[in-house]
Design brief:
Length: about 55
């Protein structure tokens, strides 16, 4: 699912992250952050974000 997926991470707002499948939901109306079917994609995206933050710090 990672292709066409957007992860919104807000460092200042705890518990406000967002995950959207922009191919199926181009207007980002359905947040998949709590969807168990998207859990693997969420972990993958969080890992990539963590890697990029470490790389650019």
């Amino acid at each position: 699912m990672a292709v066409g997926v957007v992860l919104g991470h807000y460092t200042e707002l705890e518990g406000m992250d967002e995950l959207y499948d922009i191919q199926a939901d181009p207007y980002e109306m359905k947040n998949l952050i709590g969807d168990s079917a998207a859990r693997g994609t969420l972990k993958e995206m969080q890992g990539e974000l963590s890697r990029l933050l470490k790389q650019t710090a």
